[in-house]
Design goal:
Blueprint: E1 5-6, E2 13-14, E3 19-21, E4 24-26, H1 28-38, H2 43-50, H3 54-68, H4 73-79, H5 81-91
Antiparallel strand pairs: 1-2, 3-4
Length: 92
């Protein structure tokens, strides 16, 4: 599997693999959203960073919640904490 790629001097990063979280397949784009959400970014800020609309961000989060059976952002972050831990360790 190719590694996750990051640019340490900016918010620019790319995810090049689909991540398995339990039985859910989290896409590279969904992984980007989870990472930004874990950094405390709002939907509007995430949309700006990824150059997508706020509605698209909301749709991605709905898909993530459905895949991992979460009902809100806190629950989603808790259920994907292993994934986010791996992202933090590669980023730092």
């Amino acid at each position: 599997m190719p590694p996750l790629g990051y640019s340490t001097d900016s918010m620019d990063f790319t995810f090049t693999e689909t991540v398995l979280t339990g039985t859910a397949n989290i896409t590279p784009r969904e992984t980007e959203l989870l990472y930004l959400m874990s950094q405390g970014k709002s939907n509007k800020e995430i949309a700006a960073v990824l150059h997508i609309s706020v509605q698209t961000v909301q749709k991605h989060f709905k898909n993530i919640y459905r895949k991992i059976d979460a009902h809100n952002k806190i629950e989603a972050l808790n259920k994907t904490r292993l994934l986010l831990t791996a992202l933090y360790s590669r980023r730092n």
